[in-house]
Design goal:
By secondary structure, the chain is an alpha/beta fold. 30% of the residues lie in helices and 23% in strands. The chain has two domains: 3-60, no CATH class; 87-240 and 256-305, 2-enoyl-CoA Hydratase, Chain A, domain 1. The chain has eight helices and 14 strands.
Length: 306
Amino acid sequence: MAPAARTYLSKALSIMEEHSLKRHQVDWADLRNKAFSQARGAQKPADTYKAIGLALDALGDRHSTFWDPEQAKDPLGASTASFEPPQGRSLKNGIGYISLTAVDGSQKTYDAYVRQGRAAVAKADGAGACGWVVDLRRETGGGMWPVLAVAGPILGDGTVGMFVDADGKKFVWSIKNGAPYLDGKPWAGGAGQPLGRSRPPVAVLTGRPTASAGEAVVVAFRGRPDTRFFGEQTRGVPTGNVPHRLSDGAMLILTEVKDADRTGRTYDEAIPPDEEVVKDPRPVARHQDAVLDAAQIWLLKQAACR
């Protein structure tokens, strides 16, 4: 290997060894030997990309990835970011409904998402929803904080979850006045509008597309009183990634923490619902939603909605 390629690969592997969520479970000497063997003869950094990708796969977190310089130029699609706005409406018998979708991009994009999402919650709240359906079936990942900023008034104030690293260090998520905080520091977005009724019962809908940031929001609702989960299990990557820029502009996206709920229970695989309900895929059932129906049946049995 040329010195430039050797130095580049060594640096990438050192970042993994220092920061990976799996760092205490990996035989690093073996992983390094395999990576350098894979990159034998490499003359420039780009010649080591395949070896870096294979090393990330070997970590076993199922979430880390590598972007070459071209992919990493606009890593979050900041220049062209768009999103499907959250949708809110009032269901029968005074139940509020909010569909929280995935979003990624710049802070400007996040601000627009929060503004539209909070307007959707306010619309669904109407005169004061007795209970809520929070639909996360299209929350496929991206930024978790704008989604928490929209869900904050429904979650209620207090600790709602945390990140936990490989050494057990915790980074606490909380809600204050409807807005999300990390270790006591506010995320941009400001306070959320209070609901017409505080601490309502909540039905959370999940599916196999619910992933990453979407799973973080699922975890934030876990352990909340008067809350039940419906649908299918999530994708299985309730973990947090951190980007590391390399010398040629490429980016190592490394899984460094797993999610934990307000009780301290950690998650690093698919999260099952309390009540499994599979949407009927047949064309005849195109306009039916058995998951939503089950959620409404449960909500209407709760004291707040009787």
